[in-house]
């Protein structure tokens, strides 16, 4: 992946971190890389599929290129979805509301931590870019933003390990509102 990971720099295997080694699959991660979607915030990228896997390299490259093109304008266009996540939590638990003048203000309370690149293990088997975030309204489970092929949002939810709502609830892709809109 030498030429293909220009945006990520060098990748290192982390065999010495046990939680990053699952059934002989080695996860690799990058140094911190500036992410336009979060106004240039540097984040570490973790590739969760074993490398080198020549069948995935081009798909990963394309997903990364797509993701690096997403900017704060696209992020702001997703404010309604993130705000909905906040409202669901606000309705379900006893907490003080956040100080929001507009729905775009929700991003002041979202703190991205890492970006995971994974292949969906069933159905479309596409590459998904998953941004793990902490957020003020869901301290325990955080927030995840998932992008199919790194280009289009397909899931906004608590961090639950599922790349799509279809996978989380075992429903057809056609019944997943964001995934089926692509």
Would you report the number of β strands? 9
SSE order, one letter for each helix or strand: EEEEEHHHEEEEHH
Task: Tell me what portion of residues adopts beta-strand conformation.
Answer: 25-35%
Integer-rounded radius of gyration: 16 Å
- The low-confidence runs, each spanning 5 or more residues with pLDDT under 50, are 1-6, 20-24
Q: Which sheet architecture does the biggest sheet show?
A: 7 strands, mixed
Q: What helical percentage do the residues reach?
A: 10-25%
User: Which strand order does the major sheet show?
Assistant: 1-4-5-6-7-8-9
Total DSSP helices: 5
Q: So what's the overall shape? A: globular
Structural class: alpha+beta
Domain count = 1
Chain-averaged pLDDT: 87
Distance between the termini: 28 Å
Question: What's a concise summary of this model?
Answer:
It is built from five helices and nine strands.
Write up what this structure looks like.
- It is globular and about 50 Å long.
- The chain has one domain.
- The strands form two sheets. Strands 1-4-5-6-7-8-9 form a seven-stranded mixed β-sheet.
- The longest helix has 16 residues.
- Helix content is 25%, strand content 29%.
- With 182 residues, the protein is α+β, with helices and mostly antiparallel strands.
- Strand 2 and strand 3 form a beta hairpin.
Keywords:
182 residues; single chain; 7-stranded mixed beta sheet; two-stranded antiparallel ribbon; disordered N terminus; 5 helices; 29% strand
